[in-house]
Amino acid sequence: MLPMTGSVADRLQRIRERIAAAARRAGRDPASVTLVGVSKTVEAERVLEAVEAGLEDLGENRVQEARDKAPRLPDAVRWHLVGHLQANKANQAARLFQFVHSVDSVELLERLERAAEREGRRMTVMAQVDLAGEATKFGADVENLERILSAASDMKRLEMSGLMILPPYDPDPERSRPYFRRLRGILDEMRDRHGTLPLRHLSMGMTEDFEVAIEEGATHVRVGRALFGERRAA
Q1: Number of structural domains in the chain
Q2: Pair 126, 201: CB distance under 8 Å
Q3: Do residues 26 and 181 lie in contact, with contact meaning Cβ atoms separated by under 8 Å?
Q4: Residues 6 or more apart from 188 whose CB is under 8 A from it?
Q5: What is the pLDDT of residue 232?
Q6: What pLDDT is stored for residue 2 in this prediction?
Q7: How many whole angstroms from its chain centre is CA 187?
């Protein structure tokens, strides 16, 4: 666990150093890993500290919270939706986010496509995969993942770029490794089956386990508490 001391800028630097070390252990270029700072429940002023210290990518779990914060932060910020997206919020999401990590149904994919078309925008999306069958979490099983990727081949406004996972919580990061490794294997399988899609991204790893995720191939890590501290109640 990263120590939660020092300024936001200090924490950001320490996280970047650990990302780089994990990437080097895996024989990877640290630049191949995007740090998404998850700013759920964090006030905009504190988020701005991280942006001013060089953080370029912010992740939110809720459309409403991103909508409230975005006007108070620089336009250059890249916004990622990392939480579950209800289909009826697709229009708002298409206005706010450049990246959606949590597509878990063909219906949601199609709604985002129509919304992006109305907004005249292009978006990068990932399919959220459920490998643990947890009732409290979202995500597609492998069978439904096939349907989502097949439908994505026909999208004009959405680029299906990879897969996302949220493994069961465990304070031991090694317990997450099998899920990350399996997701990487699924990505390889899906790349072979859906050759027209640019499947290159793996969104996996959070505060407790992002280093393990990088060792297993993560291209996007979603770090909140290690950067901004313990969250207040939503």
Answers
A1: 1
A2: yes
A3: no
A4: none
A5: 64
A6: 43
A7: 15
Which residues, including other chains, have CB under 8 Å from residue 143's CB and lie 6 or more apart? Answer: none
Assess if residue 173 is contained within a domain. yes
Q: What is the DSSP string of 31-43?
A: GG-EEEEE-TT--
Closest CA to 40 of 7, 84, 87: 84
**Amino acid at position 163, single letter:** L
Please check whether residue 212 lies inside any domain of the structure: yes
Query: In the chain, which ranges are continuous DSSP H helix?
Result: 8-25, 44-52, 63-69, 90-96, 106-119, 142-152, 177-193, 210-215, 225-228
Cα–Cα distance, 188 to 183 (Å, whole number): 9
pLDDT at 234 exceeding the cut of 60: no
Percent of the chain with pLDDT over 90: 92
Angle at the Cα of 93 from the Cα atoms of 211 and 72, rounded to 5 degrees: 80
Could you tell me the residue range of the domain that residue 165 belongs to?
Answer: 8-228
Contact of 64 with 44, CB cutoff 8 Å: no
pLDDT by residue (tens digit) across 54-67? Answer: 999 999 999 999 99
What pTM was estimated for this model as a whole? 0.94
| pLDDT value, residue 4 | 55
Please tell me whether residue 142 adopts helix, strand or coil conformation: helix
Q: Please compute the mean of the pLDDT values over residues 71-76 and round it to a whole number.
A: 96
Of 142, 74, 63, the residue nearest 96 (C-alpha): 63
What is the CATH classification number for the domain harbouring 126? 3.20.20.10
